[in-house]
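Lab manual, section 2.4: Encoding a predicted structure.

Procedure: take the sequence of the chain (254 residues), apply the prediction step described in section 2.3, and record the output as structure tokens. A sample record is shown.
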Amino acid sequence: MIASQSHAAPMIVVEARGAGLRPGMRLDSAATIDLKDGERVTLIGADGQAVTLRGTYTGVLTKSAGSTQNPRLALAALISTRNDRASKVGSIRSGANAAPLPDPWLVDISRGGARCIREGQRPIWWRPDASEETKFTVYPIDRSWRADFVWQKEQTKMAAPDLAKLDGVKTFLIQVPGQDNAISLNVIPADVVDPLILSSWMLEKACVQQADAYFRQIQSEIDGQGAAPLPASRLNTQEIAAPAKMVDAAKEPQ
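Recorded output:
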């Protein structure tokens, strides 16, 4: 049960367990929430700061929901949060020391871990080293199908298979020469577009490498124009190499 109060700032639900809440819902920061034992909700304010509440709890969502009147300060606070997150998760697992992404929405397949993608958008595979031709294979976690790919020399981006309904989190196994990488995809609702919120959402899901790319994008916009952060990036998948066809897992690679 949520009751609205005055002097509220918008907050977006990132993760919820119970209380009738779901990711992407927008709530007022001054709303009163009633969480039973075992229920939990994580929300992000306009300044990108996350708040987690656990039941049993009855009270306002937060008394200090921030605004983006000073994007520079908000960005600095988020970067501090990023460093704490990477330290807790581990730099290797979070990708804190991974190669810099040229766009926040690319999915680095050279290492395992969590990745974030936009709702309704096809994932775009990316590799940091395009010095030679390389084969790789993608499986779902149950290995019910396979898709065989070939990176051409100097190719860094490739559209993933047209997978049906990437709802929630999906985990894929990507076989590259010498290793298997398990990659979990976290879907962010399409109507969440503010870069501070998006980068904070990425941090909450341990997509640190992608959050770092957003931080660079926001910083560039602040330094260059002193204006609001850049809108959410949308890669033009038509300009990216088409994927290989999926084949039955029992068949030989194409």
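Check your result against the sample. Residues 11 and 27 are 5 Å apart (CA to CA).
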